[in-house]
Design a protein that fits this description.
2 domains; 81% helix; mainly alpha; 199 residues; homodimer; DNA-binding; Arc Repressor Mutant, subunit A
Chain lengths: 199, 199
DNA sequence: GTCTATACTCTGATAGAC
DNA sequence: GTCTATCAGAGTATAGAC
């Protein structure tokens, strides 16, 4: 098998194992098995467990913020931005439902590792705040601080993914029902937010 | 030193280390150091690392849901309940800001361990749904499903605690400013929700 | 109950043949 | 590039003295 394929297979396997077990919980042996290769090869390609983790994490983290940034600077009204960001987030996370817990876990056990990716993202909430102030002044929405609006929206989008077992149990949903619940949240969240910021 | 004191000191130290490092990341040596005792004593009191973790986790998990349950069955209108639950949650978590990440982490790496505590909690959202339907029928609030309202509220309360490094960086807050931000969220969340469910 | 010393296991990492 | 075999270190757990 050629080099590139092997490397990609390792990364794929590593991503799955690290995401479900975390850095400390993951075993190089398990990653090797999952990739259908040998433990020694992992070190041949990535030198150490930590470097392999870094490779996985940078890939994941690198995809987190660009979408957000794109929305913030887009030429859209607040309502359209809200509509857009909720859809993008739910779709993105829905395709990789364990990413949020993985990120939060890394964020808490290893904050330094994370900071550079946040900085690289170059998200500037100032433009959003200005837009909010503008639209509020014109009576299109009520006034609200960007740091509350953004956090509220993202919280509502992400939370059901890592609290899944709790929610599913408390509301007695089976897997299928939970899938439907997640889908229903798209319009629910948008509706919830728009009603809240209406004048 | 007497038995009880030592056991409590071990539990305290174990709680701190497990919460910041997770089950796999924690070291028995570190727990022993933190407790000011010897590694062997940990095993004398708790037999194994896993049993020690279980002791810590059951204590933490056992305190999570009772508050929520109490609010659900209280004799209060929806608006008062919302007001109440936000305050209770923010206060409770504020005193132990790393609990949410710890729980989410355990929840994802070891779901089985969690399920029994959820079941024990005996939270019944049916009563809340009935109350919502009632108040909506009387035109006091708009209609909304309990599984959206509850998840939205809790998400907004908890999220800032485990996303702290991200939020703090994106909005360029220092530690003091972040403390003020967390405090300001109490009234912001209540306001945000009440405006959203107004008729 | 508490300690020191040590046994044992697991696992990340390397050496070296092919 | 890929494998088998092995090392070295870390970390949990136990034995046994006090």
């Amino acid at each position: 098998m050629n080099t590139e394929t092997t490397e990609l297979q390792i990364l794929k396997a590593a991503r799955e194992v690290f995401i479900s077990k975390g850095l400390e919980g993951a075993r190089m042996q398990e990653i090797a098995d999952q990739a259908g290769i040998n433990k020694a090869l992992l070190h041949y390609y990535f030198r150490s467990k930590d470097k392999l983790f870094e490779a996985v994490f940078s890939e994941v983290a690198g995809n987190l913020f660009p979408a957000m940034r794109q929305v913030l600077v887009a030429e859209l009204g607040i309502r359209e931005k809200i509509n857009f960001v909720v859809k993008i987030y739910l779709k993105g996370i829905g395709e990789n439902p364990f990413i949020p817990a993985f990120v939060i876990n890394t964020l808490n056990t290893n904050p330094e590792r994370f900071l550079k990716y946040i900085k690289e993202a170059g998200i500037n909430p100032g433009v959003l705040q200005k837009q909010i102030d503008d639209e509020a002044a014109h009576g299109l929405i009520r006034h609200i601080k960007a740091e509350h609006l953004m956090v509220n929206i993202i919280a509502m989008c992400i939370f059901p993914f890592f609290a899944r077992p709790i929610i599913q149990n408390v509301f007695a949903m089976n897997d299928q029902e939970y899938g439907a619940y997640l889908e229903s949240r798209e319009s629910e969240i948008i509706d919830f937010v728009l009603k809240s910021i209406a004048v």
